[in-house]
């Protein structure tokens, strides 16, 4: 038995109405479901699976690329001429990071120690750790600046000590030794004479204290009671603030530990984090929207005021004594050595710094730092943190090793710590936290669209059925009229009778 169009239209209306109703419910309920799933996955919880694994062991490729500034004219620099540097590298190291001593607390925080190891990757490097470069000798030129205000006899004694250990103003050594340490009789002598003066009791190197080390004990919020606080630092080494700087604001420990951030970020959000290596909190700001490996991201970058001096940006007065904008004086947390941090090649720094050293060419693509983050989850997809280590050098009376060196902040090295989510981790992340929420979001529009299409189809069927019925009814009426006239004999006889009478 054929189903009538009227019956079909009723079925379509019912189904369409249900689809619209379900889609409309999803408009309101869908975001709640999505947000609830994100919260469950982002909370620092051993039962949360993917995100906890990413937080604990960081199972993604992470690298440190190091560039040395080889001094081309050391003798001329010693005589007071402008230093000329040549960038060498990168020397690339794969970085292994993991968390240990993980302890959960009753106040919804978790403490841990994060360890790091570095392994040289020759295939990714331009050169080898055996490459020889020339850089300023921090033990001589750095210590000389530190001794500048000491009595002249003491400075002369220090100069004699340098000579007795054959320490000159510049070092020419293999990259591997400059990175991870070299034997120095001067270091041994100073450690015996003044214990604790130097950061190392063994070999002296720029990264000697980094390898096989930890970044201190972090205590962060798990997000169990408030997901907006997840990954935010509660304390570092038991401290709520540091004492390196001269203002309360600059000493604050703000933000996260620099690996993940709270979810549901907007373009107005910022990305604060505390860096033990920089001894301070820093904050990144939104720059633009993009896509990283098929995942929508927000790019956050360093604001131009990050390393501004107190004169150009008053909130940074606590980081002084300052020099030109673009330099962060980290001497207070680096054993009072005249060390400064900056962006590579003095990017976004006072142009005066570029005039004092030849061989630098800053640009944003190569020297700006950024983090591409998935705003819904607060998980970084692509990271590139770039920083430069600089040393203040100058001639110091009484210390002959400093010669006639002009006062200049000279770059030693710059390094980039980079990482990105890829492989199985990326696929799992995309499926669980991007694709499925996106499908759920699109379903609401699909159901509403199908429902409206069903209702519209029901209306079309109903109208066409009515037209067909009306047309059929009209044809039948006309056919009955003709049939009655043709087969009525009484009518025919009457007509014939009338015609005979008229003829008469």
From TrEMBL:
Subcellular locations according to the entry: Cell membrane; Membrane, Caveola
Compositional bias segments (type: Basic and acidic residues): 481-504
Membrane topology designation: Multi-pass membrane protein
GO cellular component, one term: cytoplasm
Chain segments annotated as transmembrane: 12-34, 442-463
Signal peptide per UniProt: none
Pfam family, one: CD36
Record keywords: Cell membrane, Disulfide bond, Glycoprotein, Membrane, Receptor, Transmembrane, Transmembrane helix
Keyword Amino-acid biosynthesis: no
InterPro entries noted in UniProt: CD36/SCARB1/SNMP1, CD36_fam
GO MF term list: lipid binding; low-density lipoprotein particle binding; scavenger receptor activity
GO biological process, one term: cholesterol import
UniProt region (Disordered), positions on chain: 471-504
Record family assignment: Belongs to the CD36 family.
Protein name: Scavenger receptor class B member 1
Species whose genome carries this gene: Carassius auratus
């Amino acid at each position: 038995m054929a189903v009538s169009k009227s019956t079909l239209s009723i079925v379509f209306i019912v189904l369409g109405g249900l689809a619209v109703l379900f889609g409309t419910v999803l408009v309101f309920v869908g975001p709640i479901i999505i947000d609830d799933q994100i919260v469950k996955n982002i909370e620092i919880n051993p039962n949360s699976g993917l995100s906890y694994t990413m937080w604990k062991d960081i199972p993604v490729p992470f690298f440190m690329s190091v560039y040395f500034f080889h001094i081309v004219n050391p003798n001329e620099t010693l005589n007071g001429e402008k230093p000329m540097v040549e960038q060498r590298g990168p020397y690339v190291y794969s970085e292994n990071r993991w968390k240990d001593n993980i302890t959960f607390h009753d106040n919804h925080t978790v403490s841990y120690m994060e360890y790091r190891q570095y392994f040289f990757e020759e295939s990714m490097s331009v050169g080898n750790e055996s490459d020889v470069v020339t850089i300023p000798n921090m033990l001589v030129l750095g210590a000389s600046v530190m001794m500048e205000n000491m009595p002249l006899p003491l400075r002369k004694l220090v100069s004699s000590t340098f000579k007795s250990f054959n320490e000159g103003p510049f070092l020419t050594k293999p990259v591997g030794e400059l990175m991870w340490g070299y034997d120095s009789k001067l270091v041994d002598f100073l450690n015996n004479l003044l214990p604790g003066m130097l950061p190392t009791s063994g070999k002296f190197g720029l990264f000697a204290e980094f390898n096989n080390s930890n970044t201190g004990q972090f205590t962060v919020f798990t997000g169990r009671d408030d997901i907006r606080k997840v990954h935010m630092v509660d304390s570092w080494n038991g401290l709520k603030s540091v004492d390196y700087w001269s203002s309360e604001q600059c000493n604050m420990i703000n933000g996260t530990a620099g690996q993940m951030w709270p979810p549901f970020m907007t373009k107005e959000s910022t990305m604060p984090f505390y860096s033990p290596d920089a001894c301070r909190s820093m904050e990144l700001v939104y720059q633009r929207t993009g896509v990283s490996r098929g995942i929508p991201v927000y790019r956050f970058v360093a604001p131009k005021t990050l390393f501004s001096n107190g004169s150009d940006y008053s909130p940074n007065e606590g980081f002084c004594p300052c020099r030109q904008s673009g330099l962060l004086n980290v001497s207070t947390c680096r054993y009072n050595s005249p060390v400064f941090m900056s962006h590579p090649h003095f990017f976004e720094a006072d142009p005066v710094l570029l005039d004092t050293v030849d061989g630098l060419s800053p640009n944003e693509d190569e020297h700006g730092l950024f983090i591409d983050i998935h705003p819904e989850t607060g998980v970084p997809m692509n990271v590139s943190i770039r920083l430069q280590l600089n040393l203040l050098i100058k001639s110091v009376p009484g210390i002959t090793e400093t010669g006639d060196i002009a006062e200049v902040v000279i770059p030693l090295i710059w390094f980039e710590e980079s990482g990105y989510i890829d492989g199985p981790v990326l696929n799992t992340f995309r499926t669980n936290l991007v694709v499925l929420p996106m499908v759920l979001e699109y379903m609401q529009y699909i159901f509403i669209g199908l429902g409206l299409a069903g209702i519209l189809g029901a209306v079309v069927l109903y109208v066409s059925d009515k037209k067909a019925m009306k047309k059929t009814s009209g044809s039948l009426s006309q056919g009955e009229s003709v049939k009655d006239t043709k087969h009525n004999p009484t009518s025919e006889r009457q007509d014939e009778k009338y015609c005979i009478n008229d003829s008469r």
